[in-house]
Design a protein that fits this description.
The protein is mainly β. It contains no helices and four strands. The two termini are 19 Å apart.
Length: 48
């Protein structure tokens, strides 16, 4: 069974830094993660 993946994109610089398994339901992911481009923790949003 293939797991659907979604990208997590930095909301500051737009870099796609992570891929995670897609969550169930249509809740949009928003996670604070480290962005190597911004060199700080920023809010990352789900992209497809
Ligand atoms: Zn960034």
């Amino acid at each position: 069974m293939a797991t659907k993946k979604v990208g997590l994109e930095c909301s500051k610089c737009g870099a796609r830094n992570y891929t995670v398994p897609a969550p169930r339901g249509d809740k949009r992911l928003e996670i604070r993660k480290f962005c190597k481009h911004c060199k700080m923790y920023t809010l990352h949003r789900e992209t497809r």
